[in-house]
TrEMBL record:
One of its GO terms (cellular component) is nucleus. Residues 469-480 have a biased composition (Polar residues). The gene is ctnR-6. Keywords: Metal-binding, Nucleus, Transcription, Transcription regulation. GO terms for molecular function: DNA binding; DNA-binding transcription factor activity, RNA polymerase II-specific; zinc ion binding. It comes from Fusarium oxysporum f. sp. raphani. It comes from the Eukaryota. Residues 86-174 form the Xylanolytic transcriptional activator regulatory domain. The lineage of its organism: Eukaryota, Fungi, Dikarya, Ascomycota, Pezizomycotina. This is Citrinin biosynthesis transcriptional activator ctnR. One of its GO terms (biological process) is DNA-templated transcription.
């Protein structure tokens, strides 16, 4: 950050102009002169002019400043609700980082051999600050790529095996110019790496971490700290990167593939993938340092303040739990004949949604009302609220009060994003958070109609946002449970009485889990039988998956940091 400030003051190069113009596009709506906001007409015309300038300038060469400007434009377009404008920008960014050699560390970068000499790669960084700046450019593009993949169901543009990057250093060390070496990002396509704590998918260490099918010599790096990296030097942004990649991988490898549920082998492989992904989520939470389990509340620096990136990481982790478990939690006719822990998964979905509501409510209540939040936080609130709707309808239980809290949170997020534009709601253009709110409102109305006896068909777990589909099951729709839907087994009282903050599920009997121990179909000892029994085992059911607001309170009496209405 200091390097950027120094360049702004020192350099008169044209390269920095494009960065400043992009910053103006993202921030003009928040600017006040003499305590008065800028005129809406001026903001609209100026941002339009600046955006044309930035987009044209960014296409004129391969420079890091151009990437920084496009990153800001892409995030702004998503937040503004202009998703179709953001996707081409993100597609350009994901390819350009490869062209410029930003997808690998400078210490292992090898120039490509082409027909013509390569002039697109960057020179060696002048110091560690410039290297960290380049690293963070890559990771911000990585985040944009994952967001677009999650929303649209596309395959990621940056595959896990195609980059070799260290995680970003913690913000404090970066700001205070305290160099350190961090671990490499772990590769989902390789077996989980081992760190000093034990098995964890969060980090890759060693000379070939993060690579796929490449010669070992490609990753020969200096010995000592540079070979392994110091896990304690990563911060909230690194954990957010891990959590959003987990969410993307769940969508890509578990939700998107088509499964023939009449084929026992395919079902067995599908459930095995479910278990593998679930254990990765368990490990991620298990190895979080306490100061990050509580979203940074217990840090020595700024104690009691919820770190924005870590709050987002924890909410995204809970969203991953929901999206992984929801198909099993609310099974349709294809899954009703399987021995799967549906009610246990429903409990996980419900608890994760409630905890996400608690976390986002506390974060919004404790941060300045003028501070915007990133689109990903809206996605987390949206998925959680939708899950509460589906759970209430599917199991015929009262709608949790946290649903309204999440709706209120989306309204708050929308107002924060719009800033001074919210003064006149009639002129306010619906932004991304408004679109999410409207979709939930529509689903809620449909749910109420179903409760009054009207027969409806809803997209259920498909997420509809202004015509764009964020779908866990592409090409399908699922009815809400109503009088015409298939009859569901009775829900045990232990599930009906789910309580907030319950981490470990109540141990249920085989009868309560609807396990038929006598059926000749279940005693066939094939792979499907084996994995089904594993998922019903207490060792699996008792794992701690969900990040709870109670984790923040576990460090001591933190109520002093929050007002009664925060």
């Amino acid at each position: 950050m200091r390097g950027f400030h120094e360049r702004i003051q020192r350099d008169t190069e044209q390269q920095m102009t494009i960065v400043l113009e992009a910053m103006m596009i993202a921030s003009l709506r928040y600017v006040e002169i003499n305590d008065k906001p800028l005129d809406d007409t001026f903001i609209s015309s100026e941002t339009s002019r600046l955006q044309t300038s930035v987009m044209m300038g960014a296409m004129e060469g391969l420079r890091t400043e151009n990437l920084q400007a496009l990153i800001m434009i892409a995030f702004t377009e998503i937040g503004n609700g202009n998703l179709e404008k953001a996707w081409p920008i993100i597609g350009t960014l994901t390819r350009t980082v490869e062209y410029m050699g930003l997808s690998v560390e400078s210490e292992v970068h090898e120039r490509k051999r082409g027909l013509l000499s390569d002039s697109s790669s960057l020179p060696e960084p002048r110091d560690w600050l410039e290297e960290e700046e380049r690293r963070r450019i890559f990771w911000n593009i990585f985040i944009l790529d994952r967001i677009s993949s999650i929303i649209k169901g596309w395959n990621p543009g940056i595959n896990s095996g195609d980059f070799h990057r260290r995680l970003p250093i913690c913000g404090g060390s970066w700001f205070h110019n305290e160099p350190a070496v961090t671990p490499y990002f772990g590769n989902w396509e390789q077996p989980a790496a081992h760190d000093s704590h034990g098995t964890s998918p969060c980090y890759s260490v060693g000379s070939n971490a993060g690579g796929a099918e490449r010669p070992a010599s490609t990753y020969s790096i200096r010995t000592g700290d540079r070979a392994t990296g110091d896990i304690s030097k990563i911060g909230a942004l690194a954990y957010y990167i891990q959590s959003i990649d987990s969410l993307c991988q769940i969508s890509k490898t578990f939700l998107q593939p088509t499964v023939d549920f009449t084929n026992r082998q395919e079902v067995s492989l599908w459930l095995t993938k479910f278990k593998e992904l679930d254990l990765r989520l368990v490990h991620w939470k298990m190895y979080l340092p306490q100061q990050w389990k509580d979203s940074g509340v217990s840090r020595k620096i700024m104690p009691g303040v919820m770190d924005p990136s870590m709050t987002l990481a924890n909410a995204t982790h809970n969203t991953s739990v929901i999206l992984l478990h929801e198909r099993i939690a609310y099974p349709d006719s294809e899954l009703l004949g399987l021995n799967i822990p549906s009610q246990f998964s429903a409990q996980n979905c419900l608890n994760a949604a409630i905890e996400t509501a608690n976390i986002t409510t506390k974060y919004l209540g404790g941060s300045p009302s003028a501070r915007p939040v990133p689109p990903q936080m809206g996605i987390c609130a949206f998925v959680s609220a939708r899950t509460l709707l589906v759970h209430s309808q599917y199991y015929n239980t009262p709608l949790s009060k946290e649903f309204q809290n999440l709706m209120d949170n989306l309204t708050d997020m929308s107002n924060r994003w719009a800033s001074h534009e919210q003064a006149d709601q009639t002129k306010k253009t619906p932004n991304f958070f408004d679109q999410l709110f409207s979709s939930l409102k529509s689903q809620s109305n449909q749910s109420q109609e179903a409760a009054t006896g009207h027969t409806i068909r809803s997209q259920g777990l498909a997420l509809q946002v202004e015509g764009s589909v964020f779908s866990s099951r592409p090409g399908t729709s699922r009815p809400f449970q109503d009088s015409h839907a298939p009859a569901m087994p009775d829900v045990p009282q232990t599930v009906q009485n789910l309580t907030r903050g319950m981490h470990n599920p109540v141990q249920l009997s085989n009868h309560q889990w609807n396990v038929d121990t006598q059926s000749p179909h279940t005693v066939s000892k094939d792979d499907l039988f084996t994995i089904s029994q594993t998922l019903l085992n207490d060792d699996f059911l008792e794992l701690d998956r969900i990040v709870s607001f109670e984790d923040m309170m576990a460090v001591g009496n933190m109520t002093q940091y929050y007002g009664p209405n925060s």
